[in-house]
Design brief:
Elongation Factor Tu (Ef-tu), domain 3; 2 domains; two-stranded antiparallel ribbon; 14-stranded antiparallel beta sheet; 215 residues; mainly beta; 1 helix
Length: 215
């Protein structure tokens, strides 16, 4: 058992990506092994995955091990062949080349991710029942002290303009890292509240399941 404080954690957003690396096969395994001849990935690289498997598509993952013609996606469990149909997971990965710190964060808020249910009742009974369906879309908001000279402004404005998802990582003070893939909406008009610092906000709409890695 343990408890942690977020104090000291940092955030960063992907600023540039390498060209897509096509992969010809991906295994059903507790950690997926991807076949790609002559790839240039290294251990510790983060990649955005495009895959025919819906549960893997658009996720960001870390490279655990590599050989000349394959690499392992750390903590990406594709062992369930009913969800990850063999032979249907082909696609590509894009290596994240550079990260830009999202600085001066004063507050972080999460919304969505709640379990949705369908309610039903049979004609012959008085009670209603629920079974789980999907979860509501997840998003989170970072509030930052306004400083237009900081480099994250340019990246966030570009992401807001081109409407393409970007990888976002939270480097936890406890040593772990949480990685999302999300659309960024950046409101760079600073708040003007007397006796409060001027602040701007970025909202990140998460497009695929996040992943958390230990230190």
């Amino acid at each position: 058992m343990a408890v942690f404080l977020p104090n000291g954690s940092t955030a960063a957003i992907a600023a540039s990506y390498d060209a897509p690396i096509i992969f010809t096969a991906i295994t059903n395994a507790t950690e997926a092994v991807v076949s790609s001849a002559g790839h240039d990935l290294e251990v510790g690289d983060f990649v955005e995955v495009t895959s025919g498997w819906a549960r893997l598509n658009n996720r960001v993952a870390r490279i655990k091990t590599v050989t000349a013609d394959s690499f392992v996606l750390e903590s990406i469990n594709t062992a369930n062949a009913a969800r990850f149909i063999a032979g249907a997971g082909g696609g590509s990965v894009r290596k994240i080349l550079t990260w830009v710190p999202v600085s001066q964060v004063t507050e972080s808020n999460k919304s969505g991710g709640e379990q949705q249910n369908v309610t039903y009742s049979f004609l012959e009974e008085d009670d209603e029942h629920q079974i789980p369906t999907s979860k509501s879309p997840l998003s989170f908001t970072l509030t930052m002290a306004d400083d237009p000279a900081l480099p994250h402004n340019e990246v966030l404005l570009e992401a807001d303009d081109d409407k393409k998802p970007r990888a976002v990582r939270i480097n936890l003070a406890s040593g772990g890292v949480i990685v999302y893939n999300a659309y960024a909406s950046f409101d760079n008009v600073p708040s003007l509240t007397k006796n409060n610092i001027m602040a701007v906000t970025a909202v990140f709409a998460v497009v695929a399941k996040f992943i958390r890695y230990a230190a």
